[in-house]
Write a structure and sequence with these properties.
This protein has 67 residues and is mostly helical. 73% of the residues lie in helices and 0% in strands.
């Protein structure tokens, strides 16, 4: 292994662990992001028209928001 490879391994080791951790929790993380985005958009005209304040799951989002 050359110096560049060793440095890359050291530098990216922490990031690789984080990616592996996220891979096992992808659905939970995506649902958290959806809730945060819905909360931020709830007071917009679109959010009001589509009931963002009452959406508590992705399944409810599918029901309330047209394609």
């Amino acid at each position: 292994m050359n110096t560049t490879q060793v440095l890359n391994k050291i530098y990216f080791q922490k990031r690789q662990k984080a990616i592996a951790r996220y891979a096992g929790q992808a659905e939970r993380i995506q649902r958290q992001v959806l809730r945060r985005l819905l909360h931020k958009a709830a007071k917009t005209q679109w959010g009001i028209e589509h009931g963002y304040e009452t959406i508590d799951s992705y399944e409810r989002f599918e029901q309330n928001v047209p394609e």
